[in-house]
Amino acid sequence: MRYTFPVDYAGAPCYVAALNRTMVPIVAGQMAIMEQPGSWQNADDYHAGYNAVLAYERCLMALCMDDLIASNDRLYRMLDTAIYGVGYTVESVDPLIVTPAIPPQRTLGIYSDDSILGRMEDLKQLLQNALNGTETPHYDTVPGIRALLQSIIDALGAEDTDLSDILAQLEIVAGLLA
Length: 178
Prior knowledge:
Mean pLDDT: 84
Radius of gyration: 35 Å
Strand order of the largest sheet: 1-2
Distance between the termini: 84 Å
Number of domains: 2
Number of helices: 5
Strand content: under 5%
Low-confidence stretches: none
């Protein structure tokens, strides 16, 4: 059986047809048969029919691709919030509008101290402050463990060493290490 392409295709009305999702590959496979030149009466029918079949197959696949892209967008926003702390707001559900839009390129930065990178930065500053006594934006307690240990070493080298001062400094060091 060979098909002829309808003459009034361009002006014909379109219909919405229900198609079970599990049937999409089967219908697309059957449509692939119509992509073959031998399925059509002549070359003109083949070219017109081939383009119409491809348009229909794109339409079938768009249903799946839209779901996949929306799923990827949700995953991106979840990771962007967890790692960088970017907050997203749902402005509308139908159609789905989420702000801010997903950028084409990610710039590194910490948008929230509650994000993974924000907490890592906090821990880094805590270690810098506790070990070296470095003043950071979040911590300004000085002296650090190294400075306290050096003062204990210096005190032990001095002749008039008060052991109660050394023990007090060791307690401070133990507290910082705990």
